[in-house]
Amino acid sequence: ECAILRHDALIPFDTMIKGAFVMMDALGFKAASREHPGELLEKMHGLLKSAGWVENLGQRLNQDGFSEVPQVTFLSDTIAIGLPIMVEARLQKTDIEHAVHALSLASALAGSLILKAGLAPLPMAYRGCVSFGEYEMNETFILGPAVNDAAEHYELAECAAVWLTPTALTIWNEGAPLADESTSRAMHPCAIPLKSGAVFESVAVNPFYNHTLPTAAERKSWIQSILSTFRGPISVHVKRQATAKLLATFDEALPVQ
To answer: What is the pTM (predicted TM-score) of this model?
Structure first.
């Protein structure tokens, strides 16, 4: 079983991968596992299958001479995504361009999984963070400064959102004008309500960015499915209201087709 470990002296930073790292988990997962264990298992297998294109991308990148490739790991309801900086001479990009490309591509991948998770049957809402830095990720563990940063922040939001940590946001703000338009559409500036009562101005993953749900009616249905998962005491309804506002913002941000 894969474990999340904090960095120690056994693995020096200079042997780690540098890039974007996503950590997100499903809200209400424990209740779903009690009430719908069979459907939940089928749902998670579907999410894992939908992430299979990442492995295919990695194989193509290996053939093109890249030694470090994207990775996805599922740890119960937690999904971890590692997207290394794609450094290759002929790309002719600056360090900041490589960094924002990794952040936007990792966010686009997270968005595709969030959208898939929200579809019936058994819709699930995901919350988490996108960080940037050094990390190590293999079959048995994930660790490193980027993992620590994501782990510190990914449960802080009072809504179902996946957003840039302060460290990742600083990098994004510096290089956003250089980002590739096809993937940067997954990034949307917004205010993230936190459990502490504070609000953090960040950039969040917009799961509607690639128009997989092309009509307003389809997006409304998806949003209602997500909001239906918020059941319980007043604290859960606070999360529901905040999530509803955020998803409406994402929908309104889409360009008219």
So the answer is: 0.87
